[in-house]
Structure to design on (104 residues):
C-alpha cells in the first residue's frame, strides 16, 4: 500500500483535533502548551506533505517554512514555560480554575 497525500492530511487532521480537544478541555497550563505544540506539529506535517506531493518538490519551500514554524514553536514553548513558572511562583498552582486574577 502506497501512502498518498490523503493519508497525511487525515493524520494531520487527527493530530490537530486531538490537540484542539486537549487545549479546550484541560485546566493544566502545561498540558495546554503540549496540546498547542501538537497542533503546530499537525500544521508542519501539512506543509511537508504538500511540499512532497507538489509538482516541483525540488524548490524546498515546504521544509523552509517548516523550519521557520519549528523555530517559532520553540520560542513559544520557552516563553510559555517561563510564564507558567512565573504564575506557579505567584499562585502555587498551574490549575487555571484556581487562578482568580492577575493583580493579586
Amino acid at each position: 500500500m502506497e501512502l498518498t497525500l490523503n493519508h497525511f492530511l487525515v493524520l494531520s487532521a487527527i493530530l490537530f483535533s486531538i490537540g484542539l480537544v486537549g487545549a479546550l478541555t484541560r485546566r493544566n497550563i502545561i498540558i495546554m502548551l503540549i496540546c498547542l505544540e501538537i497542533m503546530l506539529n499537525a500544521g508542519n506535517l501539512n506543509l511537508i506533505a504538500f511540499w512532497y506531493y507538489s509538482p516541483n518538490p525540488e524548490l524546498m519551500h515546504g521544509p523552509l517554512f517548516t523550519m521557520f514554524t519549528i523555530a517559532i514553536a520553540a520560542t513559544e514553548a520557552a516563553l510559555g514555560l517561563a510564564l507558567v513558572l512565573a504564575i506557579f511562583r505567584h499562585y502555587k498552582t498551574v490549575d487555571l480554575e484556581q487562578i482568580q486574577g492577575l493583580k493579586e
Summary: The longest helix spans residues 61-91. The chain has one domain: 5-91. The chain has a mean pLDDT of 89.
